[in-house]
Protein: NitT/TauT family transport system substrate-binding protein
Amino acid sequence: MAASPRPRRAAAGILGAAALLAALSGCGLIGGSSDDSGGGGGAGGLERTSLKVGAMPIIDSSPVHIAAQKGYFKEEGLDVQLETVTGAATAIPKLLSGELQFTYGAYVPVFQAQEKGTGDFKFVADSYQTAEKIFVIMVGPNSTIKTPADLAGKKIATNTKNSITDLLAKSALETAGVNINDKAKPIEWVEFPFTDMGAKLAAKQIDAAVMLEPYVTQAERTHGATPILDTSQGPTKDFPISGYTGMAKFVQENPKTTEAFRRALKKASETAANRTEVEDAATKFAKIDKEVAALVRIGTFPTSLDRTRLQRTVDLMRKYGMLTKDISVDSMIVDSAKTN
Structure:
């Protein structure tokens, strides 16, 4: 589903605050049942019916929330308990310990963990991919930076170095003709939370910032920030951002449960093709008004995992030093989740 063309400027900051507060709540439950039993031999011959799944109260992870809200998990015989995580990087230890059976999160940290031998991970379902103006590089009010070329030699903020945000920004800059390795005019990369970037731009403490929605709209309205470069173009157009991951051991020992979980997410992603459904779900899991949900730019929710698309992530990570060796993408994808 392409991002809606209508303007979305008012009140998006409220969504940012709601998402941040919920995301930072750590291990709080954000949906599903409170039943913690593992249980074997469940409905339809499932190896187990009770699952704990990491999720974030943000638009990107709408499918898992939709599946919980609309009863898609229950239709598959699953009792799913959603637990708040701040992303794959924080959820990976919980996957390793068995505290979570699956989690939502960005692909970049999972590939990094796979390369390091932290664990053997499996992608069960896709979740989100970029669309226009979802991730952009912003400059402050009255900035002297007028074109992407002006970003050379500047101080640019990213939320986390060697992250998906970092990856998209570097690729977009090079696509725009900026030499990011220019020793004469080196770019200085600094880390700040998305919530702080708008104020840092306004105070001229940084020259530019790599931001995503809803913080883009928030920075525009609150601090007069201006988009200077859309990172979702060229090599990063329709780029895979995040998905749902489990451990290979769990997937191998619980194939029917894994498949039931995947089917529910696939149905939810199909539902998410209707923007109204996403907006309605967001009013519940992100605790925002319908008027606010209608203003946010939204990417797309794929219904299957495409090896070629994920390989683009690995290739770019290698190009920018986020990986040092090839990753077998195909072996990390659950067979039933692959594009037919």
